[in-house]
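Per reviewer request, we include the raw input and output of the structure prediction for the construct analysed in the revised manuscript.
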Amino acid sequence: MEDFKKGDLVAVFGGDLTQESKTADTVSFCKTAIVGQSDLVVQNSVYYSKTYHVVPKSICRKIHLDPSVLAAAETLVPKIGDLVVSFSRGEGDELNKKTGILCKIVYRLGQPDRCEILCGTENVNVGWTSLIVLRRNN
């Protein structure tokens, strides 16, 4: 079992149990307020309010990141020829995706604004901020 202390950032798992299936596919991010022998009191900050909950340590995982990594972390900037995916919000919780080769970047006011990706045989115009690099073209 992990060694928790007050102020730790933890992921508290949840899920669904039925007669047919068991899933542990939801996570709440919390801070530990009190550490007990087998349980934690965690502070959950959702929707601008703080609530406190008693949870078993066995469903919690400590999360830590060296803060100096934050200053150096950068997303991979797409380049012409890269395999990219563009994403946008669809109906409900769906995510619309278009995958293709980046072939054109349109700049506005000194910044990338829109781009064209080749999806099969069709050029599709998408927003620059919706791109993520799947594979760099070397």
